[in-house]
Amino acid sequence: MRILIVEDEQPLRSGLEDLLAAAGHEVATAADGRAALDLGLAEPFDLVVLDLMLPGVDGIEVCRRLRQARPEIAILMLTARGSEDDKVAGFGAGADDYLAKPFGVRELLARVEAFARRAGRRPQPPEVLEAAGCRIDLGRHEAQRGSEAVALTPREVGILRWLHRHRGRAVSRAELLENVWGASADLKTRTVDMTIAKLRQKIEPDPASPRIVVTVLGAGYAWGADDES
């Protein structure tokens, strides 16, 4: 599995990374909530091992945003606080399981392996999309039209994932900001429009008349291509 460890205590973070890597998993780490959102919203992970008490954006908010953006991801919450209210808050934000510190190595590995078994039975979203003559490999962050391949940024991949997942409707700029950037939906910025303009240069047969990422006047953007994936 691809696992993201989010833990601000460096010794514990390093120990978990070594433990899970030795168990055969591909592991990435983040030391705070903002870094966790940047990684978790941009990259595909099967499991997030998430500390509740984080600097900046706390674990509950990270959990809520990741669950909203990536409904297929599994989230195991870690905390030194083991009260019923804390557990209820974690599950309410979208956590799948809860492990109170201090915990045993064998118990952690057993829970991770349980998630791995579930992941093997769970339908996965497509990693390769075929749209308007363009082959988009989300896992490799690459788009190819004919013999020409171009790299995609994590934000561009995040936009494509979100639009394709919600291809039956228009998606607002605020929704993209919250679920791809992990930023406040109230933030006033042209970042979304600028990123999509650059993305269209890479994937559209004619960026001036887009067929894959289309503009919905007054609403935002939508996946406009026939679903060939």
Short description:
With 229 residues, the protein is α/β, with parallel strands linked by helices.
What's the helix and strand layout?
Blueprint: E1 2-6, H1 10-22, E2 26-30, H2 33-42, E3 47-51, H3 59-69, E4 74-79, H4 84-93, E5 97-100, H5 105-121, E6 128-131, E7 134-137, E8 142-145, E9 148-151, H6 154-165, H7 173-181, H8 191-203, E10 213-216, E11 220-223
Parallel strand pairs: 1-2, 1-3, 3-4, 4-5
Antiparallel strand pairs: 6-7, 7-8, 8-9, 10-11
Helix pairs in contact: 2-3, 3-4, 6-7
The number of helices is: 8
Secondary structure tally: strands: 11
Strand order in space, largest sheet: 2-1-3-4-5
On the 0 to 100 scale, the average pLDDT is 87
Low-confidence stretches: none
The CA-CA distance between the termini, in Å, is 23 Å
What CATH first level of the largest domain would be assigned? Alpha Beta
Number of domains: 2
Largest sheet features? 5 strands, parallel
Assigned CATH architecture of the largest domain: 3-Layer(aba) Sandwich
User: Structural class, from helix and strand content?
Assistant: alpha/beta
Instruction: Estimate the strand proportion.
Output: 15-25%
Shape: globular
Write down the Rg. Answer: 19 Å
Query: What is the CATH H-level superfamily of the largest domain?
Result: Response regulator
Order of helices and strands: EHEHEHEHEHEEEEHHHEE
The CATH topology label of the largest domain is Rossmann fold
Helix content: 40-55%
